Amino acid sequence: QKEVEQDPGPLSVPEGAIVSLNCTYSNSAFQYFMWYRQYSRKGPELLMYTYSSGNKEDGRFTAQVDKSSKYISLFIRDSQPSDSATYLCAMSAEVRRALTFGSGTRLQVQP
Amino acid sequence: KAGVTQTPRYLIKTRGQQVTLSCSPISGHRSVSWYQQTPGQGLQFLFEYFSETQRNKGNFPGRFSGRQFSNSRSEMNVSTLELGDSALYLCASSYSYEQFFGPGTRLTVL
């Protein structure tokens, strides 16, 4: 079993929909949680960063971390075709240390 | 500020050969990490360098090695290439918690 599990999708939604992306993990030492977006043939781009449990909002994006359930989520409001990409969750036990990634969820927002 | 640059962007090698990939981090970033991305295994951590010292190493065979120079530029080397080494190799630099990724080097082993 992988340390971080993420549904690979693909997830197809209409423009304007609310998108929910999720990851579960097994390592209770993880404290730093990130969401990256990766467009085809590009490197991952950091979207959201959260330390420990709680919520964080940035524009149309909201990240939630529930350490008691070992579950993290990314919500995208008013989704746009430009949001079509692969979304990767990542986490680490220490800051600036090795990241453990989920397998990524491919999202397609239909205009 | 210029982003992370990786060279070359594409590479084709044959089994048994060796390859060296290069990464130039963002100016001022002293930490450089390397990851391998494949469709089957996803993104996996290879190693991390800080101030020319390897601080952390992932679960890869000794054929994978790296180094960092005094200007923070980093190289990774893969010797005795195998078909399974075909992947996108990503470099990330960081100053604090955020890791900035380069576009990657796509290596194809024939």
Explain the overall architecture.
The complex is a heterodimer of chains A (111) and B (110). Chain A starts with a strand and ends with a strand. Chain A has strands spanning 4-6, 11-14, 19-25, 32-38, 45-51, 54-58, 61-66, 71-76, 85-92, 100-101, 105-110. Chain A is mainly beta and 111 residues long. Chain B is mainly β and 110 residues long. In chain B, strand 5 and strand 6 form a beta hairpin. Chain B is globular and about 35 Å long. At the A-B interface, strand 5 and strand 10 of A face strand 4, strand 5, strand 9 and strand 10 of B.
Mean pLDDT of chain A: 94
Mean pLDDT of chain B: 95
Global shape of chain A: globular
Secondary-structure content class of chain B: mainly beta
Task: Sum up the overall morphology of chain B in one term.
Answer: globular
The tally of strands of chain A reads: 11
Give the H and E element order of chain B.
Answer: EEEEEEEEEEE
Strand content range of chain B: over 45%
Report the order of strands and helices of chain A: EEEEEEEEEEE
Q: How would you name the oligomeric state of the polypeptide chains in this document?
A: heterodimer
Query: Structural class of the secondary elements of chain A?
Result: mainly beta
Strand content of chain A: over 45%
**Beginning-to-end CA distance, first to last residue of chain B:** 37 Å
**Sheet having the most strands of chain A:** 6 strands, mixed
Number of helices of chain A: 0
Q: Compute the gyration radius of chain B: what is it?
A: 13 Å
Separation of the first and last Cα atoms of chain A: 37 Å
Biggest sheet record of chain B:
7 strands, mixed
The helix fraction of chain B, in percent, is under 10%
